[in-house]
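A brief tutorial aside. Many learners find it easier to grasp structure tokens once they have seen a single protein encoded end to end. The record that follows does exactly this for Histidinol dehydrogenase. Read the sequence first, then the structure, and try to relate runs of similar tokens to stretches of the chain.
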Amino acid sequence: MKIITAEEFAKKWNDRTEIDTNEAALDETVLEIIRTVREKKDAALYAYTEQFDGATLDDLLVPEEEFSEAEKIAAPELVTALKEAAENIRNYHSEQNEKSWMISQDKGILLGQKVTPIERVGAYIPGGKAAYPSTVLMTIIPAQIAGVEEITITTPPDKDGKVNPYVLLAAKLIGVERIYKVGGAQAIAALAYGTETIKRVDKIVGPGNAYVARAKKWVYGTVGIDMIAGPSEICVIADAEANPRYVAADLLSQAEHDESASAICVTTSKEQAVAIQKQVAEQTEKLERKEIIQASIETNGKIIIAKDLTEAANVSNKIAPEHLELMVEHPIELLPKIKHAGAIFLGNYSPEPLGDYFAGPNHTLPTSGTARFASGLGVYDFVTRSTIISYPQEAFVAASESIKTLATVEGLTAHANSIQVRKDEL
């Protein structure tokens, strides 16, 4: 794991290029998949599932027998863990519930906001290199709290045409049984435009690979999306007193996601940097996903030495990481200096996996620096807000000339006329 100074990091950061030479090819592939699904519907989904997942399906919908099989093989401790996590997630997200409101002003004016649940939501649950029952809980529970009536899950099957049993178990535990065996860009297209089997939705949420992320970008506007998620990221700010074993373990917890994941530590101590570097190497050798971790660390891993915690915070704010751990002696004191992060973990015993699985806050978080302007998934992502305006006659007349003046300045005379015809009647 490379060790660099904050100055070296700043130069590399300022000189970085955002050009991805593979983007054009990726877009071409994704757009072709979307066009084919729109044209051939279910037939395209069956064909792409065979092509990309190696599975020949008779039906896209997961049958009840698969849910029953999943329940039979589930260890009691897994069921308990999922139930506990679901309760924590539900309790946390219940605090995010928004309410409609109305205020009364002078002259009988009423202004307000009406909060309405989105009608149909599609949740994409990734497959491939790992199974994500936790993502089922994180994407579905906030939608349920918001009051979404129709929730559909799509997830890729394995080569035998089966969906991961733990994904099914998590879905069944929270009351979702409409799951389709479709993955990749073709699943996003099906949710956005509909097929004979899959009903089109109003919004698509959930993480996925580069094809899924790109497809979400292209269907946005036809449907809403939560975000365009990139590879997973972690940044740990560690002072000289931090435990290097803990720091290294937390960095590796994100590096194991995939080869493009980013694991960065910012420390105020050169000796600490060397100790963390050593721990990363030692712990990597003992982990099952060693090859993925090594590729991630080699490409995107680094330890940055800052002169003090203020500079460390500034480095983190430039990165705007998905996950940020403040592994320092007084994390609460450093917290005000943090401006941009998807989720912030305070102290030695609040590691990132606590947020991934159990604590309650959502693990679907902004990546690739988008924490500068975006937030993690929440109940507020599953509602719309309609403003309410009510002016009685007296208030309308009092405001009419000002409205006409503004409309005339903008050259929108029909707007002004809409006001004038009412004044003429009066």
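Self-check: Residues 111 and 389 are 5 Å apart (CA to CA). If you spotted this yourself, you are ready for the next section.
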